[in-house]
Amino acid sequence: MPPITPPEKRPDRHYNFGRMNMWFAISALALLATTLWMVVADYAQPWKRYQAEFRDLEKEQLRKELEAESGKIEGQRKQLQAEIRAAEKALGKDRDEIEKLEERIRELSSKWNQADADWRGAKARLDEARFIYDSSIQAGGADPEKAERVEEERKALLDAQREREGYGKEREQIQAQIAERRKAVTAAEEKLAALQSGVESLETRAAVLDKDLGYFLLNAPLMDFVKPTLSVQQVILPGLTHNINFTEINRVDRCVTCHVAANRPGFDGEEWKEPYRSHPRLAEFVGDASPHPYTQFGCTVCHGGLDRATEFSRAGHSPQSDEQRKEWEKKYNWKRQAYLEYPILPAGMTEAGCATCHAGGVWTPKAETQDVGRELITHMGCNGCHPINYPSYTNLRKAGPDLTRIAGKTNPAWAYKWIEAPRDFHPTTFMPHFFYQENTQTPENRKRQAAEIRAIVDYLWAKSDRPQYGPAPAGNPANGKRIFETVGCAGCHILDPKAKRDDFFPKMNRLHGPNLVRTGSKVSRGWLYAWVKNPKQYFPDTNMPDLRLTDQEAADVVAYLSSSRDAKFENVALPQVDANVRDELALGYLRNLYTLETSRARLDAMSQTERNVYLGEQTITKYGCYSCHDIQGFENAKPIGTELTQEGSKPLHQFDFGHVHSVAHTRHDWVKTKVMHPRIWDEGKERVKDYNELLKMPDFGVSEREAQAITANVIGFTKETAAATRKAGAADGSRMASLAEGRKLITRFNCQGCHLIEGQGHAIQQIIQDPAMLPPNLAAEGARVQADWLFAYLHDPSRVTMRPWLTARMPTFQFTDEQANTLVGYFASREKQKPFVSRPVAAHPRDLAVGKMVFDLYQCARCHPSGPVVSGAGASTAELAPSLMLAPDRLRHDWVPSWIKNPQGWIPGTRMPDFFLGSKPGEFVSAVAQALSSPTYAAQKQQILPYFASEAEMNAYLADTDKVTAAIRDHIWRLAGATFAAPPTVTAGTVDGGGAPAASVSAGAAGGGR
């Protein structure tokens, strides 16, 4: 066969049809493959895999629960099934009769249906007759025949109704007979159904999760319009916004697209891993019933990250270690989002997000890390060097003591050693180490630092006042130790040479005051005695209160504290420094102001002492010592640190990581490293920087946990936080401001060292372990006490002794009127109460009689004496409570009944018993009437019965909890001899509520007048 020759090209074409068709076919197939790949790639999103896997895991969990539930009820189910079979067997004897009754029911149902139809027809005919009759009246007159027809139709309707009801009643009677015969079977079937309801519920839930044909069809590619079960989950948060290109847009959180169980309970066991776990603490965060539900707050407002992202690598996750970073890079192709403003915060830093809304409140409920960090920042004085414009950090007293009288307190040699290394003397001090840090270790720099320390001491002593103190009386150290541990000193102070600050994390109230170890090597006994007796004579703005110690008590405490000594800090000479090095430093400061020649001339004109003082002044300025201490000559000096108000929004490229490559380039890593190693960024720069150009931030000796807490605050200082704080202040300015200022004072004076306030405090419990001897819980204080009483008490706690059995004393803080008003306003705002109320009106004699009877019935005087507290009428110390003689002056008249009714609701854990609790939470039942029905209380019953019209009326009164608790309150007011507002006047001879005649009640008659 001859070979086939290809067709010749036509002269009007320059291509081959066969080759062209081949390439068209190849390109079409390539386009089809690309389109299919695009569809599959778009469909195969990682979040779909997460949702599908979670569906399988949830079904597996339901299967296990189903097996467990089935196994648990199997025995009961078999027993009930046996009961059903036995009952049905017994029912078989009556089967013929039941069938006859059921046949009769069917007949009656048929007849009832016919009778019902007849009744409806009769009703329609009656309506027609009425309409015709009414029409005849409107046409000109009533037609007797039409009226007669109406009457006939009415009778027909009644006959039809009687017949219908008769059939219905007979049918119900027969049904009741059948039900009676089937009662045993029905009861067993109902028990079985109730028993199996849980299993059936689990079976229903598991069936919904089956991956059947419908599941695959709904979730197939290009089927998104049908509402697939695998879909992007999002919530729009209109109150929370992003600023993008100067435009505020609403957040749209999509986090639960992958974290499918984040807002669902029940997925928090060890077997559940991310992203399939429930969010921790659902009662507080994300849960529907929490204060921060997912539908209103989402996730990114607290955690950070790109809210709209549905891919792991784009969401902004932050690895916690190099190992995790490498794992993510390999597993998820993760890369750091260079232009994402707020990456997701790592574990341990999430409370930074709390600041966005809570920066104005001073304390953040349930945010322990942030609260501790805030306390550390203020104790360490960070806000003194770094302006932080949030209520928690503004208008605060300086963190350190007043140094304007330092020469009267201690000696220069001790001060030198203290400035050199504070933690060598006080291991828990918040005073940082400025000198001999990692960037100043060269021999030349060590000499310069010695000169600076000596210069600071010389300046302080040159400028200091010199108060004189006489010798302290002799004291008993053992008794001083007892006083120190019982009167309240231990709420703020410790005396422990081995203590570490981190040992007290997170309950740091006992570090509010300094560790008093080695006090005998620091101060003179005369100064210490004067200080303990009246701290404000030395430091007018001190936080230290006056515990009103007697002279002997103060002498004993001084003897105890002075017994703690360390020879290394005693009888030491003030070291000499290199004069040339000192002059070099002083000349450097002069050159910043003058020419070289003038600078040298000015230095030469100074004496040796003047040179030391001048260098001291410049060194204090350099390190910002005045930020924490009052120092003469620095009254108007400005902070030296960078403002931190929006540090969490500072662009990452503005953080100087220097030559340090071991720190991850994130905000939180930079801040945490800076806090722990303040001078690390000078690494490799020591030779290119002048001495005064080196970093100066001191080392506070923070632990890992402390650094974490501080960092969680600093990175929460964002522009959104600042805006939210301003917005919150504008929306609820008065109450929020009152709470913030009150909390600042409570924190400043460490009220929580002794008291429990907002659920936090009682630090003194570490020393006073008997709960009965602890200072009171101040929950509900704003609703409990009168504002004017609290104001006076804060000014002078010695005016009244409410709990004489306590060894801890309420100290005298010498509050100003403004401070006392701030605290009174805080407590009132806390309970949303108006601070002042009018005097109560005198009570009715009936209420007083009932109040006395119930007061005696419940033996209230056993714990609450109505006179001076000595023994509490036989009660033990653990049962004693404040004297009721104080009640009218101290307690709010409107609060007392609610306290008597529900003491645990006001102060959880109180020793006050619950007399009015019902069977359900929140229910309060008075059992007084029931108690009086006993012959034991017949006499008490007869005492109050004359005040009521009948025994039934008396019982109704005594069953009313509100009336009974108010009556008890009125009796207490009479016991204490309270005065009243204008009393009610009732005409003599009338009866109020029946029974005893009422009369005009004067203040004296009601127990008033003093």
Shape: flat
Major sheet size, sense and barrel closure? 2 strands, antiparallel
Average predicted local confidence, pLDDT: 86
- Which blocks of ≥5 consecutive residues have pLDDT under 50? 869-874, 984-1010
Number of strand segments? 4
Determine the number of helices (DSSP H or I, runs of at least 4 residues): 37
Measured on Cα atoms, how large is the radius of gyration?
42 Å
Strand content: under 5%
Can you list the strand order of the major beta sheet?
Answer: 1-2
Structural class: mainly alpha
End-to-end C-alpha gap: 141 Å
Into how many domains do the coordinates divide?
A: 6
Helix proportion of residues, in percent?
A: 40-55%
Describe this structure in words.
Helix content is 47%, strand content 2%. The protein is mainly alpha-helical and 1010 residues long. The chain folds into 6 domains: 124 residues, Up-down Bundle (Four Helix Bundle (Hemerythrin (Met), subunit A)), CATH 1.20.120; 113 residues, no CATH class; 124 residues, Orthogonal Bundle (Cytochrome Bc1 Complex, Chain D, domain 2), CATH 1.10.760; 182 residues, no CATH class; 82 residues, no CATH class; 131 residues, Cytochrome Bc1 Complex, Chain D, domain 2, CATH 1.10.760. The strands form 2 sheets. Strands 1-2 form a two-stranded antiparallel sheet. Strands 3-4 form a two-stranded antiparallel ribbon. The chain is flat.
